[in-house]
């Protein structure tokens, strides 16, 4: 969609955007650049140590490229190109017309409009809950052991921020990985991982935006996908990221192998909480 001509001294590279950030970092390292993408401005001034010039071979790419100024970074350009290239089919034609006819004055405006147009597709939001497992490392011996969920409640905001950052590391929305039936995929718009305190415990929650409600069979497909992501995908990467606390580093997992593990929609979760703890409906309502 967009090409980035990078010059570092007498070395040059041409990068194709969008691309996996790790691939971009590798390509940059080959010409001696080891800066983060967010620290590389779109600036082709001859006095710049690193010069970046954007160009494209399509009307859409060219119209996007001119929106980037030195105040924007290579990370901004890669993210914006990714969001345009992967926009939902339902909004793509309108989005492309807006871009070509110069209706945007910044890449941020493009990305905000994509988010707004995508959210308009959502008519149903369903939350799926799962237990969290929290481990801590012993600073002296390096042992790894499970700790009480109270550590999760005490550090809820730090955990939420980590979950948010971990999703931002991947350009794709978690819904993009869903390999279910065509009917289920056509209904799924987005999925955002989060945490929420319920009844004094911290739980994992996946906010799922849908065009229309899943059928029971489609919902089972989606729950199976979420369990897989919790165990081997998103969750596997997340549980390797430490959170600093006064007592030591804690690690949070959205999955465990015990018989008491579950991944269920809010109605079933509400029933579980009611059965186990005598909760009233309003205590989980408003999610």
Describe this structure in words.
This protein has helices at residues 21-29, 59-65, 74-85, 89-100, 107-119, 150-154, 156-168, 182-187, 216-232, 234-238, 266-277; strands at 2-8, 11-17, 50-55, 124-131, 133-137, 144-147, 188-198, 201-210, 243-245, 248-253, 264-265. Helix 3 (74-85) packs parallel to helix 5 (107-119). A hairpin with a 2-residue loop joins strand 1 (2-8) and strand 2. It is 39% helix and 24% strand. It has two domains: 2-119, no CATH class; 124-283, no CATH class. The two termini are 38 Å apart. It has a four-stranded antiparallel sheet with strand order 7-8-4-11. Strands 6-5-10-9 form a four-stranded antiparallel sheet. It has a three-stranded antiparallel sheet with strand order 2-1-3. The chain is an alpha+beta fold and 287 residues long. It is built from eleven helices and eleven strands.
Task: Write the SSE topology.
Blueprint: E1 2-8, E2 11-17, H1 21-29, E3 50-55, H2 59-65, H3 74-85, H4 89-100, H5 107-119, E4 124-131, E5 133-137, E6 144-147, H6 150-154, H7 156-168, H8 182-187, E7 188-198, E8 201-210, H9 216-232, H10 234-238, E9 243-245, E10 248-253, E11 264-265, H11 266-277
Antiparallel strand pairs: 1-2, 1-3, 4-8, 4-11, 5-6, 5-10, 7-8, 9-10
